[in-house]
Specification:
There is one protein chain. The protein is built from nine helices and three strands; from the N terminus they run H-H-H-H-H-H-H-E-E-H-E-H. The chain is mainly alpha-helical and about 325 residues long. It has two domains: about 15-220, Alpha-lytic protease prodomain-like, CATH 1.20.1510; about 230-315, Alpha-Beta Plaits. Strands 1-2-3 form a three-stranded mixed β-sheet, with helices on one face. Strand 1 and strand 2 form a beta hairpin. The protein starts with 17 loop residues before the first helix and ends in a 9-residue tail after the last helix.
Length: about 325
């Protein structure tokens, strides 16, 4: 049997290959590491000198980004391991586990920020006056984090990586937190000292909420959640457009990291031989794995009988007595 050759309009995209996705993840994450080292050091140092709890909280948030970045790097490396005797489908769920770890990390960091801010709000007389230099640092961090978010999200969408999307939105939460911190510092400088710890509390809530979202989504993926309807419909369409396939039913999917494992029942002409039906199934599987981020597709071939011939087919088909062994 000759190998199936995809038609010229097949959207085979090398950007979705494991190697390209790994390279893109590594590049964007190292950029994030460099930016967060500078931001965290500057924010915490200036926050201590300027007596801004909000800026210190923002610096801690940036430090948590560093931990998140290294989690992503480790997961990205391990998820590219080949399938082995213990992991027949590879190690792609390292990425899902990394997203879960990111979510839990954000929950812990956000909870710590809330606790610290509430403690300060209980003693308003002890809130110090913030120096205006903290405002300039907060504004600079806001711009840097927003640029970093847009860069990382663009890379994540290009290679369709939920782990990179999670890390990108972590950067966006940093940008939002820097905006809140800037407002709190402005209020403190203008004579409203409570606004600085209030800003820190808002940042803590935002971080915790983002962490819950990531952890919940990753938990569902670990429980074999199906892919979205649009992508499932696209896979079904590719199967139905395969020459010889008369119908498709019982298409089921589950996520394996950012890849997909699926199985489907293919209906082929009942008059075909077993070998011909097998060739059609192989061709359909190959097309799906070329066009979509499907790691493996298990197919089951069912006989398709034209409605007008169903009666005739039932007459010539050999009868089977279910009571006989």
């Amino acid at each position: 049997m000759t190998a199936f050759q995809p038609p010229p309009d097949d959207p085979e995209d090398s950007a979705h290959s494991p190697a390209e996705r790994a390279a893109a993840a590594s590049r964007s994450t190292w950029v994030s590491v460099g930016a967060n080292v500078v931001l965290a050091t500057t924010q915490i140092f200036v926050g201590i000198l300027s007596k801004s709890q909000g800026l210190i909280a923002d610096g801690i948030h940036s430090s948590s980004d560093l931990i998140a970045d290294f989690i992503v790097l480790v997961a990205n490396r391990h998820s590219q391991k080949e399938a082995d005797a213990d992991h027949h489908y590879g190690h792609y769920r390292y990425e899902t586990a990394a997203s879960l770890a990111l979510g839990i990390l954000l929950l812990l960091v956000g909870g710590g920020m809330l606790w610290s801010a509430i403690s300060k709000l209980e003693r308003p007389d002890a809130i110090p006056q913030v120096h205006v230099v903290a405002l300039w640092v907060a504004c600079g961090a806001l711009v840097t984090k927003e640029v970093l978010f847009r860069y990382m999200l663009a890379v994540a969408k290009r290679v369709k990586s939920s782990m990179l999307v999670a890390n990108a939105w972590h950067a966006r939460s940093d940008a939002a937190s820097s905006l809140v911190v800037s407002i709190g510092i402005i209020g403190n400088v203008l004579g409203y000292p409570l606004l600085d710890p209030v800003a820190a509390a808002i940042v803590g809530f935002m971080v915790a909420k983002m962490g819950w979202s990531f952890a919940w989504d990753a938990l569902h993926d670990l429980m074999d959640r199906a892919i979205d309807e649009d992508e499932a419909a696209a896979i079904r369409r590719t199967l139905q457009e395969t020459s010889g396939v008369r119908g498709v039913h019982d298409l089921r999917t589950r996520k394996m990291g950012d890849m997909i494992v699926a199985d489907a029942h293919l209906e082929v002409d009942a008059t075909l031989t077993v070998d011909e039906g097998h060739r059609i199934a192989v061709q359909a599987r190959h097309r799906v794995m070329l066009r979509h981020r499907v790691l493996n597709l298990m197919t089951h071939v069912d006989p398709w009988i034209p409605p007008c011939a169903s009666t005739q087919y039932s007459l010539i088909r050999p009868s089977v007595d279910p009571s006989r062994p």
